[in-house]
Amino acid sequence: MAIDVFTDEWCAAWEEKLKESKDFPVYNKGWEGDVGCIIQPDPEKGLNDEKYLYLDLYDGTVNGIRMVDKEKAESAKFVMIGPYVRWKQVAKTELDAIKAMMQGKLKLKGNLPYMVKYLKGTQEVIRCLTLVDSKFPDD
Amino acid sequence: MGYEADWTFNYFGPTKVIFGVGMISDLPLEVGSLGKKALLVTDPGIIATGMADQVEAMLGGSLAGVYSDIPQDTGIDIVDQGAEYARSVDADVVVSLGGGSAIDTAKGICILLTEGGNLKDYQGMQLLTRPQTPHVVIPTTAGTGSEVTIFSVVLDKEQGQKIFLFENYNIPRVAILDPKMTEKLPPGLTASTGMDAMTHAVEAYVSQQRNPISDGMALHAIRLINTYLPQAVEDGSDMVARGQMQIAALIAGWAFSNAMVGMVHAMAHSLGAVCRTPHGLANGILLPHGMRYNLEEIPDRMADIADALGVETRNMSPVTAGEAGITEVEALVKRIGMPTTLKDAGVKESKLEQCSELAVTDGAIVYNPRFVMDPEEVLEVYRKAYFGGD
């Protein structure tokens, strides 16, 4: 059964898939820095409030993926910000996250070259999300 | 040349362009339409040529002040100090006169004048949500294309690395391309900055983020550079060649600001950081080797480039045509008197491994048409460029 996105249950399912990945520890080896994602609301699509997602990843280890408050998300070393519709495209691999940032569809606060070094790790995080049966507000 | 049916792209290039010998005279009108008090951002080299005096005189009463404490590679502290000075003189427009370092300093000042804070607060991509302080650019080189791009690159001395800012809202409002302003550029710098523009054009044309608009600009830039760069190097007073090179650099800038660049830039950035190799020089030497690395991945595109370089490709396979194009680029580098190997450019072989590690962390490499994330593969290309040959 599909799980509602931006819920604790959904985060836990994503975290489990990422922990099962054999590639993630390889691609993320050496990574230091948490990631905050800010999903801007889109009432017309059924997302009434801003959502804050936090990925605690370190040197190939998944310490946790969870919904947090704004302050926690904004305090992360890397903060990615964008409208709901863009995040949905990223989650469904219809839009590459780095390309989205280059084109202004998502904003990044943080060191781009560092993220590029771990590009495969980022792609694996998204791939694992696609393994979760996700239900978006406008599905 | 076709595109997939389900394919999408963005193109953004809002800069007003004023071109022509003597068109620097439009500067006061442009500044007057954007604000009241202009800060002139330039560097000591430009001041020594007398060009800054000329611009100051043109601005007259609308000149708020001059900020010229800018080294070859600008830094966060330089931008922060410049913004403080700009605030102290109540500047509401920024005019930059110079090459990449002066233009990127001015771009940083524009952000801080509007948003406040320090430049480091804005490290990232597309963080800004409103138009920034108006910026008029007068380039004195024909290479960076920075007068129309979303990028600025600034050195963070504390971290020992360059920070990148990508901001649609901070693209300069006006670029004044007056060929006279590049007349005093010496032949060596004319050659290397010209090859920087050629690399922008070639890499934009083969980038994974290419689009039809950037394609057209990139191919036209390649044609112009191949024709006019040797003339501009040979005779710096040739205003036709100088002007065509300015146009080529600008449209190559529009192309790569939207399509991005690739591994050659990633490798040149790394050589700049580790060995202090000038950016255009590194690009010119590395370009044929990068093209050769990518050839099998995009033979049709490489054949188009060969065609733009004047190669008669009609009876050639795409790979053969692409090879001929690479040979043409190598011939151009020789023709304009640039070193053809990294060894000749003074790079130490012992540094290449460090450069390879750094190159795979550079943002440009993401858009290379052939996926490359292995430092060993990059090192192999560096070695070919170091010793020469294919």
Overview of the structural elements:
The complex is a heterodimer of chains A (139) and B (390). Chain A is of the alpha/beta class and 139 residues long. Helices cover 39% and strands 24% of the residues of chain A. Chain A has one domain (3-132): Nonspecific Lipid-transfer Protein, Chain A, CATH 3.30.1050. Chain A is built from 7 helices and 7 strands; from the N terminus they run βααβββαβααβααβ. In chain A, strand 3 (51-58) and strand 4 form a beta hairpin. The longest helix of chain A has 13 residues, at 8-20. In chain A, 38% of the residues are buried. Chain B has 390 residues and is of the alpha/beta class. Chain B has 2 domains: 16-182, Rossmann fold (3-Layer(aba) Sandwich), CATH 3.40.50; 187-387, Dehydroquinate synthase-like - alpha domain (Dehydroquinate synthase-like, alpha domain), CATH 1.20.1090. In chain B, strand 7 (151-156) and strand 8 (161-166) form a beta hairpin. The chains are: A alpha/beta (139), B alpha/beta (390). Chains A and B meet through helix 5, strand 6 and helix 6 of A and strand 5 and strand 8 of B.
Features:
heterodimer, A: 139 residues, alpha/beta, Nonspecific Lipid-transfer Protein, Chain A, five-stranded mixed sheet, two-stranded parallel sheet, 7 helices, B: 390 residues, Rossmann fold, Dehydroquinate synthase-like, alpha domain, six-stranded parallel sheet, three-stranded mixed sheet, 14 helices, 9 strands, globular
Brief synopsis:
Chain A is of the alpha/beta class and 139 residues long.
Structural class of chain B: alpha/beta
* Ends distance of chain A: 14 Å
Number of helices of chain B: 14
Looking at CATH, the homologous superfamily of chain A is SCP2 sterol-binding domain
Distance between the ends of chain B: 28 Å
Query: What is the radius of gyration of chain A computed over CA atoms, rounded to a whole number of angstroms?
Result: 14 Å
Low-confidence stretches of chain B: none
How much helix, percentage-wise, in residues of chain B?
40-55%
